[in-house]
UniProtKB/TrEMBL annotation, chain A:
Position of the signal peptide: none
Protein name from the UniProt record: Par-6 family cell polarity regulator beta
Alphabetical keyword list: Cell cycle, Cell division, Cell junction, Cell membrane, Cytoplasm, Membrane, Tight junction
Organism: Accipiter nisus (Eurasian sparrowhawk)
GO cellular component, one term: apical plasma membrane
UniProtKB/TrEMBL annotation, chain B:
GO CC list: cortical actin cytoskeleton; plasma membrane
One Pfam family hit: WD40
SMART domains xref list: WD40 (SM00320)
Chain ranges of the Lethal giant larvae homologue domain: 246-345
Organism: Accipiter nisus (Eurasian sparrowhawk)
InterPro entries xref list: Lethal2_giant (IPR000664), LLGL2 (IPR013577), WD40/YVTN_repeat-like_dom_sf (IPR015943), WD40_repeat_dom_sf (IPR036322), WD40_rpt (IPR001680)
Protein name in UniProt: LLGL scribble cell polarity complex component 2
Length: 372, 961
């Protein structure tokens, strides 16, 4: 979901870019190579250097085109900041110890007065302990409820984002039976249920899944008629981007559909089913792509080899993913026209094509970065 | 728009698919699992075998096979052919009778005569049933009261007519039948007058009866190990026995359960009987004794004797029986003894081979064997079979009308005892060609020369071991795990349980030579690891004598001696690659030098380092879960399919867990599993795989390819390895040219390493050439049997993991397309092979596809190079884990899998290559038309009540001839 924005930097590339950085009352101006912004750590060091605050822990923020104050604390949002700055990148630096986290967020810059008043009356905001949401160095979505507008109210489609191996998915499934309404009346049919949540696991921490929830679909594929082992294998195969549709055991917390605030996929309640189907597809297609490019390829390593740590490689792969980004702005899962001349006559949703056009070639040559 | 194109079906392709693919289970090879009954028709010269799962199989001349299955899946107790008819009656253990007939397709009208079936019951009454209507003729019932009328008072008091033990029709006079009751009373019954004509007052518990050919005498055999001859003449109505004899006395003996009296021209009869061994010292033997004058041999079988019959002259005009062969159905094998040749040697059966003489551990199929190699293997095998009789196969009914097999195919099976058996798998009869043993290379506890002492002349009883079934392995480390045969060069690589890899060469002569020995330390510098598994095998020092055939010349032993999990041989480069759970290595068998080893262990993988012992606990646990699963699927399966094949479901598992017997397992289920399921339901953990998982270093596949590994201008030999953790290693090889092959070393350098992010085990690696065809096998091009690969276009790499198929570009490895199997269907790849499919419509079209077997037992065909699912067939039940594990595909779209420890099911995915029985049984002329045919069934219905009741009595079944 956050990928489309990640790094259009490469495609724009208009030489240098002006940066205006504010720390306390001081301003610094300098320029950055727009096409090669570098890493966040380097930028952070640069800011400390230009403001002459080498050993001060600071929070970095910038104003985006909507005037919102957004944090810069990892490579992703740093690149995003660089790519969207037009023409000037405004940076705001705060000391970590007296940072005001509530300053970040939507409408923050238009609420500036409020921010000021908060700063002026610190005792006021102490009363409301705030949740730090932007501090983790790798700020990433953990889970989401999707397709609320097209699913029956009794169902819930949950997406779990699994990055790396730090936090286990942490749930178990079992066989069971549920009651269905069929043309012949009520019928008991076998079903798959969540049997256990591991404390501290991803599934539990989202609060979106619970014991005895019935699993209806895994990444868009119905589980009815499939065995427990099959469903297990499907979930594990999709574990990097798992979308489970459940019928929650507790039906009291269901999202009420005609409440306008609930639609997470941003569509209005009027959207009819056919028009939103491609949306699901888009989700799945995106999921497909997401898990793919990450195969690590190491070439010509003559030295004693270890499986490299994920960090440097995935970072360098980031530049490779740009190839994919060219396709991303397309809508509803349609692939862009340059892919249509592929002479592969057929394919299926599960397949992915990589186009071998000249642009990509040149990018692939750049792929030497990944050569260790 | 593209999306619509994708989902739409291409009608041209759909038509082509119909011409290319078709799924058939064609024939079962091997020995029927749990045989329970045997029948033979001297008229048709066909043999019938019934099994405990209700199957009935007919065999005649090689290639003549029929199979049927009783719907009830009950044990077949007895099989009786109806004389002079293509029909047989079976009795199941649910007391039902079934009539089967072989229908002719020629349309000739069938002559139906009245046949009567005599059923002896436990109550002592004999019922007469008319065939084919199965109508009971009540007025002809022979009641025990009628039989006892003229029996002397004192005899009658002592014993009543308990159950009917034997019924035998008089050989000359069909109006008389001999009835034997279990307590010893035998009567001759006249059917015309409905009365007893003779009483024979036996004093021993009766087991069986047999008429002498002329009807003047009969012989009875008894529970105490004796047999008795009785005269039959019209003047004496209460004859005394002529002779009573205990062949293995004087100490108490076991019962003689069946006896034959066969007359010969020279006057000396053959007396052939089952059992009768001295109870104390030989009571556990499964024996059949043949006595002919002064010659006597007690054939000692390796498993329980189910039944046997004698093939003798069946011409009614012939004066003597003149037996020619004895056919014995034992529980685990079929043994045929030639009674014509001096010494009574065994006959090599052309079918019904005991595949499981030692448990099958792996199999390997090689298609299209060059004639030269084929002949050399046969000649090596014939030297091993000199002790067999030269008699033509005596069961020769029916005619095989199948065309000659299109090519010569070999199926190689590896066994637990360290042997490799070479089977002719070209046609319907799976026939043993040659047996190779790797044991001689190693020092084992049991010296093969120790226990093979021939029995001394004066030993009594004169036992002689017959048969090949020997499930006991001296040393489990000898077990064969991987086999690779190069059909062009005759090089064979065999790898086993204790990390041993043998490279062999075919030699037509006996030879004595030293086997070069090397060790491959796969752990290299990894420190602090402890191998808790078995030790490596000790090798024999000095030269070893090898018989003609495949003779090992190189032995590589992996260290630690873990089971070899993958093997590849390149006969052109003279390289062999092998992998275990620790890593893989490459050996140059020309220079006899280890080229390199690579450790694939993840530092955290403690389990792999400790060896198999530490896994015992988890194995037990998984076994228990599997049983639970089986149980559940059995319950649900019964609802769906009426419980077909339940016995085999459990049976499949009994192979896996040696300390579980089926009964134990069943009992356990019945008691607690269901309740246990209520308390603690089976649950599965959902967790992404990580690098820290166990056995990620396990090498699953090895592959040699001449391709573009480094750059797109020069290709070079390469070795590819795939692991359980989803890693693919590619090594660039430098093989010196032929003229300097011995002078320069082979060099290897790692060129690539691919870590699949989904981390599923890599089960197959394949390189496609510029025309997207798989690279040919080594030496295939040199022998003009394949076009040379296209080296102009860019090559592609196909990596098959358990979950996905992915095509990468070469030399720059980038993902091109993929098929996600598990994510979409929840099934995992178990076996994958490239197969060539020819069209049944045109001779000039063929294509290569992937044949895939999944863990659900489905077979899928996936196109190359676009990875499109073509077609899917359910093949093996998903509970049949051993069946799925045993499956091998052939190069031309056929396959084999074990349906029991002793049987391969053969299937075909191709419309073009189909090996299935095609045969006819011609009805021989009926010689005597006025003869009323009767078939005696002894001891048929064991029910305590006098009322016979059976459901679904009549079964007409058409066999496709």
């Amino acid at each position: 979901m956050n990928r489309p924005h990640r790094g259009a930097a490469g495609s724009r590339g208009l030489g240098t870019m002006e940066v205006k950085s504010k720390f306390g009352a001081e301003f610094r101006r300098f320029s950055l190579e727009r096409s090669k912004p570098g890493k966040f750590e380097e930028f952070y060091g640069l800011l400390q250097h230009v403001h002459k605050i080498p050993n001060v822990d600071v929070l970095v923020g910038y104003t985006d085109i909507h005037g919102d104050l957004l944090p810069i604390n990892n490579d992703d949002n740093y690149h995003k900041a660089v790519s969207t700055a037009n023409p000037l990148l405004r940076i705001f630096i705060q000391r970590k110890e007296d940072a005001d986290y509530s300053a970040f967020g939507t409408d923050t810059m238009t609420r500036k007065k409020n921010v000021l008043s908060n700063v002026l009356r610190p005792d006021n905001h102490k009363k409301k302990p705030h949740i730090v949401i932007s501090m983790p160095q790798d700020f990433r979505p953990v889970s989401s409820i999707i397709d609320v507008d097209i699913l029956p109210e009794t169902h819930r489609r949950v997406r779990l984002y699994k990055y790396g191996t730090d936090k286990p998915l942490g749930f178990y499934i079992r066989d069971g039976s549920s009651v269905r309404v069929t043309p012949h009346g009520l019928e008991k049919v076998p079903g798959i249920f969540i049997s256990r949540l591991v404390p501290g696991g991803l599934a539990q921490s989202t609060g979106l899944l619970a014991v005895n929830d019935e699993v209806l679909e895994v990444n868009g594929i119905e589980v009815s008629g499939k065995s427990l082992d099959q469903v297990t294998d499907m979930m594990i195969a999709n574990s990097r981007n798992l979308i489970i549709t459940v019928r929650p055991a507790n039906q009291r917390n269901n999202v009420v559909r005609n409440s306008r605030t609930s639609g997470s996929s941003g569509q209005s309640t009027e959207s009819s089913l056919p028009s939103s189907t491609p949306n699901i597809l888009a989700n799945f297609l995106q999921g497909e792509e997401e898990s793919d490019e990450e195969d690590i390829i190491i070439e010509d390593s003559g030295e004693p080899q270890q499986i490299p740590k994920a960090a440097p490689t995935s970072e360098s792969l980031e530049s490779l993913t740009q190839i994919e980004l060219l396709h991303e702005p397309t809508q509803n899962g349609f692939l862009p026209s340059n892919e249509m001349n592929l002479n592969h006559s057929a394919g299926s949703i599960s397949m992915e094509y990589e186009v071998q056009d000249p642009d990509h070639k040149s990018l692939e040559e750049d792929g030497t970065i990944i050569t260790l | 728009m593209r999306r619509f194109l994708r989902t739409g079906h291409d009608p041209v392709r759909e038509r082509l698919k119909r011409d290319l693919f078709q799924f058939n289970k064609t024939v079962e090879h091997g020995f029927p699992h749990q045989p329970s009954a045997l029948g033979y028709s001297p008229f048709l010269r066909l043999m019938a075998i019934g099994t405990r799962s209700g199957a009935i199989k007919l065999y005649g001349a090689p290639g003549v096979e029929f199979m049927g299955l009783h719907e009830e899946n009950n044990t077949v107790m007895q099989i009786h052919f109806i004389p002079d008819q293509c029909q047989l009656v079976t009795l199941l253990d649910d007391n039902s009778l079934h009539l089967w007939s072989l229908k002719q397709h020629s349309g000739a009208s069938e002559l139906r005569e009245e046949h009567l079936l005599y059923l002896g019951t436990e109550s002592g009454n004999i019922f007469v049933v008319e065939l084919p209507s199965f109508r009971v003729l009540e007025d002809r019932t022979i009641t025990s009261e009628a039989v006892l009328q003229r029996v002397p008072e004192d005899y009658c008091n002592r014993r009543s007519c308990e159950l009917v033990e034997a019924l035998r029709e008089h050989p000359k006079n069909p109006d008389q039948i001999l009835i034997g009751y279990s307590r010893g009373l035998i009567v001759l019954w006249d059917l015309q007058n409905n009365k007893v004509t003779h009483h024979f007052l036996g004093s021993q518990q009766l087991e069986n009866l047999y008429w002498q050919r002329d009807g003047s005498k009969f012989i009875s055999c008894h529970y105490d190990g004796s047999y008795t001859q009785w005269p039959v003449s019209s003047d004496n109505r209460h004859p005394e026995p002529l002779e009573n004899f205990v062949p293995y006395g004087p100490f108490p003996c076991k019962a003689i359960s069946k006896i034959y009296w066969q007359t010969t021209k020279n006057g000396l009869p053959y007396i052939i009987f089952q059992g009768g061994m001295p109870r104390a010292s030989y009571g556990d033997r499964h024996s059949i004794s043949v006595v002919h004058g002064s010659q006597q041999i007690a054939f000692d079988f390796t498993s329980r004797v189910i039944d046997f019959f004698i093939i003798f002259s069946s011409e009614p005009t012939a004066e003597f029986d003149d037996p020619s062969a004895m056919v014995v159905l034992a529980e685990e094998e079929l043994v045929v003894i030639d009674l014509k040749t001096a010494g009574w040697p065994a006959v090599h059966p052309p079918y019904l081979a005991s595949l499981h003489c030692s448990a099958i551990t792996c199999s390997h199929h090689v298609s299209n064997i060059p004639l030269k190699l084929w002949e050399r293997i046969i000649s090596a095998g014939s030297k091993q079979n000199i002790h067999y009789s030269s008699m033509p196969w005596p069961i020769d009914g029916g005619t095989n009308i199948a065309p000659d097999p299109p090519q010569r195919d070999l199926l190689l099976t590896g066994h637990e005892d360290g042997t490799v058996r070479f089977w002719d798998a070209s046609g319907v009869c799976l026939h043993l060609l040659y047996k190779l043993s790797t044991v001689r290379v190693f020092l084992t506890d049991a010296d093969p020369n120790d226990n093979m002492n021939p029995l001394g002349e004066d030993e009594w009883p004169p036992l002689r071991k017959v048969g090949t079934f020997d499930p006991y392995s001296d040393d489990p480390r000898l077990g064969i795990q991987k086999i690779y045969l190069c059909k062009y060069s005759g090089y064979l690589a065999v790898a086993g349980t204790a990390g041993q890899v043998l490279v062999m060469e075919l030699n037509d002569e006996d030879a004595e030579h030293v086997v070069d020995h090397a060790e491959a330390d796969l752990l290299q510098d990894q420190e602090g690891y402890r191998w808790k598994g078995h030790e490596k095998l000790k090798t024999r020092d000095g030269p070893v004598r090898f018989e003609a055939g495949f003779q090992p010349f190189v032995l590589v032993q992996c260290q630690p001696p873990a089971v070899v999990t993958s093997l590849a041989l390149h006969s052109e480069w003279k390289l062999v690659a092998f992998g275990t759970s620790h890593g893989f290595g490459l050996f140059d068998h020309q220079q006899k030098r280890l080229v390199f080893v690579k450790c694939t262990l993840h530092p955290s993988d403690q389990l792999a380092l400790e060896g198999p012992l530490s896994r015992v606990k988890s194995l037990k646990k998984s076994l228990r879960q599997s049983f639970r699963r089986i149980r559940r699927s059995r319950v649900s399966g019964r609802k769906r399919r009426g419980g077909s094949g339940n016995a085999s479901e459990v049976r499949a598992w009994s192979m896996q867990g040696p300390d579980y017997t089926v009964q134990e397992a069943n009992a356990k289920f019945d008691q607690d599993t269901l309740q246990e399921m209520e308390l603690a339901p089976v649950q599965r953990k959902i967790e992404a795989r990580s690098a820290e998982d166990s056995f990620t270093g396990f090498v699953r596949t090895l592959y040699f390819a001449d391709t573009f590994l480094r750059d797109s201008s020069r290709h070079c030999p390469s070795l590819w390895a795939g692991t359980n953790g989803g890693t693919v290693y590619a090594f660039c090889l430098r093989v010196p040219p032929a003229e300097r092959r011995m002078d320069e070393p082979v060099r290897a350098e790692q060129a690539k390493e691919i870590q699949l992010m989904h981390r599923a085990p890599v089960v197959g690696i394949l390189v496609l050439d510029g025309r997207s065809n798989p690279l040919p096998e080594p030496l295939e091009v040199a022998h003009d049997l394949s076009k040379s690969p296209d080296m102009q276009g860019s090559h592609q790499l196909l990596v098959v993991s358990e979950e996905q198929f992915k095509v990468f570009t070469l030399p720059k490895v980038s993902s091109k397309l993929k098929l996600k199997l598990t994510a979409l269907e929840g099934c995992r790849v178990r076996k994958v092979t490239v197969a060539n499919f020819g069209s049944c419509k045109t001779d000039d079209y063929s294509e290569n596809d992937l044949a895939v077997l999944t863990n659900l037992g489905d077979i899928q065909i996936i196109s190359l190079p676009f990875l499109k699912l073509q077609i899917r067939y359910p093949c093996i039940r998903k509970e049949d884990v051993s069946g799925i594990a045993s499956c091998v595909f052939t190069k031309y779209g056929q396959g084999f899998y074990l349906i029991s420890p002793s049987e391969f099911e053969r299937f075909s995915l191709s419309t073009k290559w189909l090996v299935e029985p095609r045969c006819v049984v011609d009805m021989p002329e009926v010689t005597s038309n006025n003869h009323v045919h009767k078939s005696g069934m002894e001891n048929a219905v064991r029910k305590s009540s006098t009322v016979l009741w059976w459901d679904k009595l009549v079964k007409h079944w058409n066999w496709y001839p």
